[in-house]
Specification:
The complex is a heterodimer. Chain A is an alpha/beta fold. In chain A, about 35% of the residues lie in helices and about 30% in strands. Chain A has a single domain, classed as Aldolase class I (TIM Barrel, Alpha-Beta Barrel). Chain A starts with a strand and ends in an 11-residue tail after the last helix. Chain B is built from 6 helices and 13 strands. In chain B, the strands form 3 sheets. Chain B has a 7-stranded mixed beta sheet with strand order 2-1-3-4-13-12-11. Classes of the chains: A alpha/beta, B alpha/beta.
Chain lengths: ~260, ~220
């Protein structure tokens, strides 16, 4: 079995790290790179930077933040929010990112998924999906940070995205995001059972036990952690220890 | 204190920023260049690379760098190949037909097996963190770039092809993927190749880069 990955997710608005509930009601948490460095030193396997308001203004502002992070953070970084073209992806990769996450622009123009995958490899092309439950076994794709509905069914869209070349899925439950109520296991299971590319479960992690459930029952390949780390309710090493104890494969990491 | 000077060969493939930042973090002064004079004047040279083997060799040929890198090896300059840069050190690759490599380490580059040792289909590329292991017959990593590392430390891989040295003594570290042993680090004298990305492998990778800056 592959190692599961423990990923720190940083949502950014302007120069600030922020945290909301259901991707709204944003609260400023401080400097993104101070937090990022802390998570790197705690042993995060990867980092995700998301520009929360990029789609609203039509551009990504994370270049400078990522480029500064690349000076002292040496794990893979995924950057998303407002990436609308292969040129946008090129710029963010040049700034030090390893992968780009695309949501709104991929819904508007699915061909962008293929263009980015062909240019940089599918391992570089993360399809970001914001999902809201509409009935017990159906979820709808939202864009613009959970603000705009698309009418697309999550399962149909994820299958299409993988066919188009997405190498990984960042699956955010808008319903659970920021609530600490645990991941939407049914959503994650519905997605992981349909595709073979890795799925990062995001939204709702209240405790290390939620990580176990979404991996063991939901089939997630990775978990994105935000609130639990930002509010210092746990460190990455605590989560890793729980995973190891439960017999999950994780990256071997010696705590400093 | 002397600041280590390192030349990273810039032949137009891939993003060199992370490699540069990683080396700078280890205290090095980094020059990105394709200038043969600067490369041959260096004490330490890094050959990076992402993408396809054939394209990379073509780029090196177009810049007249193939012989330059062979001279680097002959002049006993420390050479570190990273990811595709490691694969280029071999004699040839099977990626998209047979392509000749730099021939600095005997052996060839093959696809990662599409099935696990148990015959199940496995995901290609191999992406993610895997543990370093001592290959059979090797007792330790003294006098290699891994001398500050120890087995089971994890490093970050992204690759679909793997290097297979002809001489087992050129295998310095392996990792397991689907039960198969895959070369993670290869070496011959002052030439080392890392299949993984030391610049994306946290402190474990930085230890390797730091050692390269010292040697």
């Amino acid at each position: 079995m592959r190692n599961i990955r423990l990923i720190a997710r940083l949502d950014i608005k302007g120069p600030n790290l922020i945290k909301g509930i259901h991707l709204e009601g944003l609260r400023v948490m401080g400097s993104p790179n101070e937090h990022a460095l802390r998570y790197f030193l705690q042993g995060a396997d990867e980092l995700i930077y998301m520009d929360c308001v990029a789609s609203l203004y039509g551009r990504n502002h994370l270049g400078d933040i990522v480029s500064a992070a690349a000076k002292d953070i040496f794990v893979p970084m995924t950057v998303g929010g407002g990436i609308r073209s292969v040129d946008d992806a090129t710029q963010i990769l040049r700034a030090g990112a390893d992968k780009v996450a695309v949501n709104t622009a991929a819904v508007a123009n699915p061909q962008l998924i293929t263009e980015i995958a062909q240019r940089f490899g599918s391992q570089c092309m993360v399809l970001s999906i914001e999902a809201k439950q509409v009935n017990p076994d159906r979820w709808e794709v939202y864009t613009d940070n959970g603000r705009e509905r698309t009418g697309l069914d999550v399962i149909e869209w994820v299958k299409r995205g993988v066919e188009m070349g997405a190498g990984e899925i960042l699956l955010t439950s808008v319903d659970r995001e920021g609530t600490r109520k645990g991941f939407d296991i049914a959503l994650v299971m519905a997605v992981t059972s349909e595709i073979s590319v890795p799925v990062i479960a995001s939204g709702g992690m209240g405790s290390a036990d939620d990580m176990l459930t979404v991996v063991q029952d939901g089939g997630a390949d990775a978990v994105a952690m935000a609130d639990i780390l930002h509010y210092k309710r746990a460190e990455v090493g605590d989560i890793r220890a729980v995973a190891e104890k439960a017999g999950l494969g994780v990256r071997y990491y010696e705590r400093a | 204190m002397n600041v280590p000077e390192i030349v990273v060969i810039d032949y137009g493939v891939g993003n060199l920023l992370s490699v540069q930042r990683g080396l700078e973090h280890c205290g090095a002064n980094v020059t990105l260049t394709a200038d043969p004079e600067k490369i041959l004047a260096a004490k330490r040279v890094v050959l990076p690379g992402v993408g396809a083997f054939g394209n990379a060799m073509e780029a090196l040929h177009n810049l007249d760098l193939v012989e330059v890198i062979r001279d680097v090896a002959n002049k006993q300059i420390s050479l570190l190949g990273i990811c595709l840069g490691m694969q280029l050190l071999f004699e040839e690759s099977e990626e998209f037909g047979i392509t000749a490599g730099l021939g600095l380490i005997p052996g060839r580059v093959l696809p990662i097996p599409i099935r696990t040792e148990l015959g199940e289909s496995q995901k290609i590329p191999h992406i993610g963190w895997s543990s370093l292991q001592l290959p059979d017959g090797l007792n330790g990593w003294n006098e290699t770039l891994l001398q500050d590392n120890h087995p089971s430390e994890s490093v970050y891989f992204v690759h679909s092809f793997m290097g297979l040295p002809t001489n087992p003594h050129h295998r310095i570290a392996d990792c397991k993927y689907g039960g198969h042993s895959v070369s993670a680090v290869i070496g011959r004298g002052h030439i080392t190749g890392c299949q993984f990305h030391p610049e994306k492998s946290g402190e474990v990778g930085l230890k390797i880069l730091r050692r390269f800056c010292l040697d």
